[in-house]
Amino acid sequence: MKQGAAHISLKSSQSNFTMPPSASVETAEETEPPGKCGEPPQPLLNRKKYFPSVPDGLWNDWKWQFQHRITTIQELAEYLPMPGEEIKQLEKVACRYPLSITPYYLTLIDPADVNDPVRRQSVPSVLEINDLMQGYDDPLGEKGDSVVPGLVHRYSDRALMVTTNICPMLCRHCTRKRDWNQKGMVHSREEFQAMFDYIREHKEIRDVIVSGGDSLSLSTARLESILSALRSIQHVEIIRIGSRYPVVLPQRVDEELCEMLSRYSPVWFNTHFNSVREITPESAAACDRLLRHGIPVNNQSVLLRGINDSVEAQLALCQGLLKIKVRPYYLFQCDEVRGTEHLRTPIEKGVEIIAGMRGHTSGMAIPAFIVDLPDGGGKVPLLPDYVAAINPGSYLFKNYRGNLYSYRNPSDGSNVNNMNSGAGEEHLLASALPGVEA
Asked: Which residue has the higher pLDDT, 106 or 1?
């Protein structure tokens, strides 16, 4: 077992490999769009550099990927150059907040860029254990809303199942960072039964989110047993799965998994892309497999400093998601998690980004900006303020260009003539204002 990360025993379909003479070597044309100046894309170059003897059969085996995660700083330094002093500092960080990076995700990192957005999400930072250590271990107050171990019931019609604390990658901004130093945990059959019993007794629950950790870390058979039990409860209408596997280990989303999920429809899949750099042929193919089996895919990203905190970065991400048929759903303000202060942005930044996107891309490409309130307060959507004034019988709006428009409310029928007359005066008044288009 590698040091410092939650572990699950997985048997790979192959082992003790050597590169056979007949093994095919991927080309840029086969795997990704061509890069600039005809050079192979970065992930392909990194794979050939870091894992030259790994054949396609093993590389595309999700269990091999999981077993060969990078989980120590010394191992990470073999791939990403870093001075000795930084290694010592990061080892201190890893004692408190371990690391886990899949070989696939490692190849997405530009080793020459210390501010690479993929690197900042996966590689520990000394800022995680600075002197202030602001934030909370459980910022959303999940413990207070846990009705039985592993089941959070906050909203009346929804419940969240935390099936395991095992993830293929430990994202540095993780809300459940508090669980990282626990050994790999999967709830027992008795604990799962207690969850199902609670859901069955509470008929107001119509929507169940299956999460973790990452629930796709469970075997397909174990995951199916959970979905089957939920489907046996008549009042459960919707099952949602929250998983980052399509992004960090897309090989997990294979035909067997997708066929199994399709048997328990309607199943909705929420994944977690944070950067356009994470949209690759492999991750796009994983999402496509889900979609072709009738499983809609939404994206829930987190606003992160230096990773996606600009209009340009969000436009690239969200337009890229639409190209692979994934709907941008939520853009979360980064939670007040202890050890993530360096990744958090001011709330105003999120509102500014949404305002900057509006009018410059399709509404389908604009996620809802959400603040998940501390202590179990729940989600609050935030929008730019487009209302310039509220007048009797009409509103004055500001559009995405900053121009003002008067919009008349419908008459309530009590005094049509007066209402129409008043609206006309407001229309003339608005038209006389600088920058107003009536």
From this structure: 106
At residue 436, the 3 state secondary structure works out as strand
Q: Where is the domain boundary, 100, 127, 154?
A: 127
For residue 239, give the H/E element and its range: strand 238-242
242 and 324 share one domain: yes
* pLDDT tens column, 398-429: 999 999 999 999 988 654 444 444 444 444 44
Catalytic residues: 154-155, 158, 167, 171, 174, 176, 335, 372, 379
Across-strand partners of 394? 391, 408
Average per-residue pLDDT for the chain:
87
Residue 11: inside a domain: no
Q: Measure Cα distances from 244 to 1, 10, 250, 360 in Å.
A: 23, 19, 9, 28
Identify whether residues 401 and 333 lie together within a single domain: no
| CB contact set of 234 (below 8 Å; sequence gap of 6+) | none
The pLDDT of residue 32: 40
Residue 220, domain extent: 143-382
From the list 367, 347, 363, the residue with the least C-alpha distance to 400 is 363
Both 71 and 94 in one domain: the answer is yes
